[in-house]
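User: I've been trying to design a sequence by hand for this structure and keep getting stuck. Would you show me what you'd pick, starting by listing the structure so we're on the same page?

Assistant: Good idea, let's start from the same input. This is the structure you sent:
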């Protein structure tokens, strides 16, 4: 069963890369690129850097900036249909696991 789950994940990743490549190489009018501010609750610097890197490794997205207070990431997405859905996806798929891995930093800048 574990092998089947791994194969399904690999297949899903290949499909996402294929769709991203088709959008990149296809007609520009079909794209809706945007910069989006993503609020984050991480307060551990390493966790924030990991999140920024993970977002940049996701096809069609890249982290462009982080605010001085480290409460928001500026993310550029190649094709955004629903900003709120993208923010929610980043927060649940990537930020939540990082919050469970990295301990809170008691010295967060304000």
């Amino acid at each position: 069963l574990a092998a089947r789950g791994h194969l399904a994940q690999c297949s899903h990743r290949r499909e996402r890369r294929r769709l991203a490549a088709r959008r990149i190489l296809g007609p520009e009018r079909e794209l809706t690129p945007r910069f989006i501010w993503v609020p984050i609750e991480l307060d551990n610097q390493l966790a924030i850097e990991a999140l920024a890197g993970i977002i940049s490794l996701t096809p069609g997205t890249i982290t462009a900036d982080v605010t001085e207070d480290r409460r928001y990431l500026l993310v550029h997405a190649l094709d955004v249909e629903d900003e709120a859905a993208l923010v929610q996806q980043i927060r649940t798929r990537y930020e939540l696991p990082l919050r469970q891995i990295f301990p809170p930093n008691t010295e967060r800048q304000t």
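That's my pick for every position. To get oriented when you compare it with your attempt: Residues 2-25 form the longest helix (24 residues). The CA atoms of residues 51 and 101 lie 12 Å apart.
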